[in-house]
Specification:
The complex is a heterodimer of chains A (377) and B (227). With 377 residues, chain A is α+β, with helices and mostly antiparallel strands. Chain A has two domains: 95 residues, PH-domain like; 235 residues, no CATH class. Chain A has 15 helices and eleven strands. In chain A, β6 and β7 form a beta hairpin. The termini of chain A are far apart. Chain B has a single domain, classed as 4-Layer Sandwich (Double-stranded beta-helix). In chain B, strands 3, 5, 6, 8, 9, 10, 11, 12, 13, 15 and 18 form an eleven-stranded antiparallel beta sheet that branches. A four-stranded antiparallel beta sheet of chain B has the order 1-2-7-4, with no helix packed on it. Helices cover 15% and strands 46% of the residues of chain B. Chain B is mostly beta strands and 227 residues long. The chains are: A alpha+beta (377), B mainly beta (227). At the A-B interface, β1, β7 and α2 of A face loops of B.
Chain lengths: 377, 227
């Protein structure tokens, strides 16, 4: 017969005397444990009892009565005993018992409510931080000085060029310089001094590093039908730099905490973090949203520079079709019909301007690259 | 299973004698020495999720160690991390204790350890955090404290006020409210007490004679600051 309740009274220890409570028709019988086999028994009538809720979590049923030895307080927690008690009690205890049950319910409900509110608040702030991380990244990026960004980009640029066959002069370089000049003079408050380098390679691609360092591969120039197409790609790449997309990617990959640190003034920490994480600027890929932004801003820039923007769209579309060199471009510039469509829509919305042609002859530029113009598939 | 406190005072140890086949669970790292007949096992009490919740919610250790006298009778010596007294309680299946997170040292195999959520006010102001251990079941429970351990016995409706950071364990038949130490807010904090717990009996409240948080703050001023 293991104890199922604790009884408190003057002669019992403060921790309570373990006892076995039995609910009878007329009242309670309490048997106390004792070392000598059969223990002491006490009985009480229901009429003598008062009930309340007690205990640290208000989950004990507290039954009190007086007998010749003084006041007795019984703490019941065992659900079977409590059920038996509720079923057996006479009418005069029903109302107090219902009150006790109500009180326990209220305490539990209030606790659940408070925890629900707190849980909800925590969850929503976590969600807010998650969704707001883009904003945080933007704020962090805006705190990084341009000079610092240039230093970062320049070292990666120098590293890259040492292993490459750079085209230093000739019609191709002149053409790219003309395009760059036409585009950059239309950029207001331009903090970057753009450096565009032509690199001899069959790769059909171009890329931009933070700080304004742009590389155009001769493969791309060979593939293009005219200067406007190359200018379109160039405009797209320049806008990756202007929108600081590279930095955004870096800050995102080094993590939210670093972004917070940057916002609060520790910009230098980023270099260390990049080194630790081994982030390679050259392998940095832009996100879909960043590509779209560079497309749209690029289109606007072409328009302002009076370069025919349809060249950009045409070139993108052609590269997305099947053909050689498709993979290099697509690996960094995922092309979709929707993207081209959006650009077309955007172009239609822009005011029509009369394009001013480039001064160079594109066929000559391509000839200087050492091959015949590639036939358009 | 027999247990005995060796070197009572600041640096005590508990010696637990285990009959063949008996086992006890102890806080991870509590074992100091044991007979070669005893195997030490690591166990996630309450299953993986229970252990996880205990680790993250109460700050208690993820694993408990189980010392099992699998190769015959033997004894084990257990000690807590912090200097302070040890108390041995006997649970009989009906009395249960709430134990603050660092208070548990060891217990018989048949005792049940759960982490339990406290009410918001107790969690915020009580100083034990939102989750504490609730220990029930049958058998020996060994508590450790920081400083000396003191037992307060409360009769039904008897009240007692305890500074919240001195709490070690208390019966679930007690209840308490958090209140300001003095009637004014400023005086509550300038008095150095802040919030206190007003306990109401019946039941037992075990308190420790030193406040770990205050001791930490005090010792911090002597630690050289490195660059």
């Amino acid at each position: 017969m293991s104890p199922n309740a604790l009884c408190f009274g003057d002669e019992f220890p403060a921790a309570g005397a373990p006892c076995f409570v039995q609910v009878d028709t007329g009242g309670l019988t309490i048997a106390f444990e004792s070392d000598e086999g059969d223990g002491v028994r006490e009985a009480t009538q229901f009429s003598a009892l008062t009930v309340s809720a007690g205990g640290i979590d208000h989950d004990h049923l507290v039954v009190k009565w007086n007998n010749i030895r003084g006041e007795r307080t019984l703490y019941l927690k065992n659900p079977d005993v409590i059920r038996a008690f509720r079923e057996a009690v006479p009418d005069h205890l029903d109302a107090p018992l219902a009150q006790v049950a109500e009180r326990v319910r209220q305490v539990r409900q209030r606790r659940r409510l408070v925890w629900g509110i707190v849980g909800g608040a925590i969850l929503s702030s976590v969600l807010g931080l998650w969704l707001g991380s883009d904003i945080l990244v933007e704020v962090a990026v805006s705190r990084i000085p341009v000079e610092w960004e240039q230093k970062l980009g320049e070292s990666a640029y120098r590293d890259f060029l040492t292993h490459q066959d750079v085209v230093k002069e000739g019609p191709a370089v002149a053409a790219v310089e003309e395009m760059t000049h036409r585009l950059t003079e239309q950029i207001q408050n331009n903090p970057y001094s753009f450096q565009v380098t032509v690199v001899k390679s069959d790769v059909i691609n171009a890329f931009a590093l933070p700080g304004g360092y742009v590389v155009v591969f001769t493969g791309l120039m060979k593939k293009a039908e005219n200067g406007e197409e190359v200018a379109g790609v160039l405009s797209h790449e320049l806008n990756h730099v202007l929108q600081r997309h590279g930095l955004e990617r870096i800050v995102k990959s080094v993590g939210l905490l670093t972004a917070v640190a940057i916002v609060f003034g520790n910009q230098q920490g980023l270099i260390g973090m990049m080194k630790q994480l081994g982030i390679e600027l050259l392998t940095l890929k832009f996100g879909r949203e960043q590509e779209t932004e560079a497309d749209l801003k690029g289109l606007e820039l072409l328009q302002r520079a009076k370069i025919d923007p349809s060249g950009m769209i045409r070139f993108f579309e052609r590269l997305s079709e099947k053909g050689e060199g498709r993979m290099e471009w697509l690996s960094t510039h995922p092309m979709s019909a929707a993207r081209a469509e959006r650009l077309k829509g955007e172009l239609a919305a822009l005011p029509k301007t009369l394009p001013v042609p480039f001064t160079f002859d594109w066929k000559q530029v391509q000839a200087s690259l050492g091959s015949q113009p590639v036939a358009v598939p | 299973m027999k247990s005995e406190i060796l070197y009572p005072g600041a640096f005590p140890m508990v010696r637990v004698e285990l009959a063949a086949g008996e086992n006890i669970k102890a806080e991870s790292g509590a074992m100091v020495a044991c007979s070669p007949t005893i195997d030490i096992e690591s166990k996630m009490e309450g299953g993986f999720l229970g252990a996880l919740s205990r680790k993250f919610l109460t700050g208690e250790k993820f694993f408990f160690q189980t010392l099992r006298a699998s190769r015959g009778p033997g004894e084990a010596l257990l000690a807590p991390t912090v200097p302070g007294e040890i108390a041995i309680l006997e649970l009989d299946g009906v009395n249960e204790y709430m134990v603050q997170k660092d208070g548990f040292l060891a217990g018989a195999d048949a005792i049940v350890i759960e982490s339990q959520m406290q009410s918001m006010s107790r969690g915020l102001l009580g100083g034990e955090g939102f989750f504490i251990l609730k220990i029930s079941g049958k058998g020996m429970l060994v508590l450790n404290s920081f400083g000396a351990i003191h037992k307060i016995e409360l009769k039904p409706n008897q009240e007692y006020i305890v500074d919240n950071s001195h709490l070690v364990a208390w019966s679930t038949t007690t209840s308490y409210n958090i209140e300001k130490a003095t009637s004014g807010w400023v005086a509550s904090f300038t008095s150095g007490e802040g919030f206190v717990c007003r306990f109401r009996g019946p039941g037992l409240v075990y308190i420790q004679s030193r406040n770990p948080g205050s001791f930490g703050a005090w010792i911090r001023q002597f630690i050289p600051v490195s660059e």
